[in-house]
Amino acid sequence: MNTLIVSGKTIEDAIKNGLAQWKVTEDRVTVRVLEKPSRGLFGLIGVRPATVELTLLEKPEAPAPAPETTPAPAAEVKAEPAEEAAISAVEAAAEEEAAQQGPDPIEEAKRFIIDAARAMGLEVDVSVHKRKDTVTFDISGPDLGLIIGRRGQTLDSLQYLTSLVANRYSKHHLRIILDAEQFRERRKKTLEALADRLANKAVRNHQDVVLEPMTPQERKIIHAKLQDHPKVKTYSKGEEPNRRIVISVK
């Protein structure tokens, strides 16, 4: 008997690769899993494929032909056209569903967040809120300051990595938002208050006010807050990650 060792992203993919090489169906082989796939650290680093060993079964000998006999006539049973169409539709739907099966991107992203928190020594809960193509993950638990980081920098980095994980498994782009203890809303209010205060300073001193570097999301909050201000205007200057907002008197 012939054997073949093949790899793939999943065990099923590895089996398909081997069957394609031999050009046989699955009933012609036996399968032994040598190594299960591993997602690596946080599902991104050190990904290890699945490895299987396929053994080709010998073809069974064809049975000796039976003596010819004249079968008794039987009534032919045919399905009605509508019934045939219904059966075909069900079979097609089942095949399509089977073809679309795969890791759930939201569950993979949620698992990544929990694994990342555990690597920081934290046990957290993650709730998921979906709205069209936007998915918000709310993290709850003790000591979330480690996950949020200074001015949300750690949370922003974790959000970026979570987006990579989710969209790795998704067939269409998902917008990922990561929040912890309603930090996003609290940070928005802080930035809006800062925008009002610095706008008043620019008007009072008749001088431009240059803010410290911010992320694109935070700059967007400042621009939106002051876009209808009667006495100042805003623009951004510099290159990422040092791009910053300038508040200028009109």
Descriptive keywords:
250 residues; elongated; cell shape
Question: Rg from C-alpha positions?
Answer: 30 Å
pLDDT average, as an integer?
Answer: 84
- Shape field: elongated
Strand order of the largest sheet: 1-3-2
The percentage of residues in β strands lies in 15-25%
The overall strand count is 9
Q: What is the number of helical segments per DSSP (H or I, 4+ residues)?
A: 7
Q: How much helix is in the residues? A: 40-55%
Q: Describe the largest sheet.
A: 3 strands, antiparallel
Uncertain segments are none
Structural class: alpha+beta
* SSE run: EHEEHHEEHHEHEHEE
N-end to C-end Cα span:
84 Å
Describe the structure.
It is built from seven helices and nine strands, in the order βαββααββααβαβαββ. The chain is α+β, with helices and mostly antiparallel strands and 250 residues long. Strands 1-3-2 form a three-stranded antiparallel β-sheet. Helix 3 packs antiparallel against helix 5 and helix 6 crosses helix 7. The longest helix has 23 residues. It is elongated and about 105 Å long. The model has no long low-confidence stretch (mean pLDDT 84).
Would you spell out the secondary-structure blueprint of this structure?
Blueprint: E1 3-8, H1 11-22, E2 29-35, E3 50-56, H2 81-100, H3 105-119, E4 125-131, E5 134-140, H4 145-148, H5 153-169, E6 175-180, H6 183-205, E7 209-210, H7 216-226, E8 232-237, E9 244-249
Parallel strand pairs: 5-6
Antiparallel strand pairs: 1-3, 2-3, 4-5, 7-9, 8-9
Helix pairs in contact: 3-5, 6-7
Region (Disordered): 61-81
Subcellular location: Cytoplasm
InterPro entries: Jag_KH (IPR038008), Jag_N_dom_sf (IPR038247), KH_dom-like_a/b (IPR015946), KhpB (IPR039247), KhpB_N (IPR032782), R3H_dom (IPR001374), R3H_dom_sf (IPR036867), R3H_KhpB (IPR034079)
